[in-house]
Amino acid sequence: MAHKVFVSYHHYNDQNRADYLRRYYGQNNTIIDRSLPEALDSQDNDYILSVIRTRHLRDSTVTIVLIGSETYNRKWVDWEIYSSLRPYGDRKRNGLLAIYLPTATYVPSRLADNIRTGYAVTMKWENISWQLDSKIKEAFNNRDKYYLVENSRPRRVRNS
Q1: 7 by DSSP, 3-state: which?
Q2: How many domains is the chain partitioned into structurally?
Q3: Angstrom distance (rounded) from CA 35 to CA 59
Q4: CA 82, 53, 61, 8 torsion: positive or negative?
Q5: Are 25 and 156 in contact (CB under 8 A)?
């Protein structure tokens, strides 16, 4: 069964990997993509966060974070993880799946907190062909483990 996923990543550096994930795994019914096809063209942070929350995260169940060389520096990646971990209305929090790209360096702090607690699931990009489906299911099932969620950090104010 395909899961509705939101993909969070550094748009400039990792767009090709995100496009591959959407194209290949969306067509084979592993994922139903609910993420932004490209960065929103606005300087209004409240507007952008509202669009992400109401149009993209609202009906997703798992957030996939593609970890590349600059992902840890991106405020929007942090904000998307933050929003993914917050239930609101009748929406449950998302499961988290971290995928280490070959270019990965540091892990975003909020994501690292949830890897440490066991809430977030991890895998390497090189294993995507045989692990993606099972790792998405594992992240989906972790949604019931709310006691493992660590989301107390203040949101990043800017990119580093």
Answers
A1: strand
A2: 1
A3: 10
A4: negative
A5: no
**Edge to edge, what strands does the sheet with 95-100 contain?**
31-33, 3-8, 62-67, 95-100, 121-124
pTM: 0.91
The two tokens of residue 88 are 């609101």
Identify whether 155 is part of a domain: no
How do residues 38-74 score in pLDDT, each as one tens digit? 566 677 878 777 777 777 677 889 999 999 999 999 9
Contact 32, 4 (CB under 8 A): yes
Any domain includes 158: no
Cα 38 to chain centroid, rounded: 14
> Largest alpha-carbon pair distance within the chain?
40
Q: What is the pLDDT of residues 11-35, one digit of tens each?
A: 889 999 998 998 888 766 677 666 6
Is 61 in contact with 91 (CB distance < 8 Å)?
Answer: no
Residue 140 near residue 62 (C-beta atoms within 8 A): yes
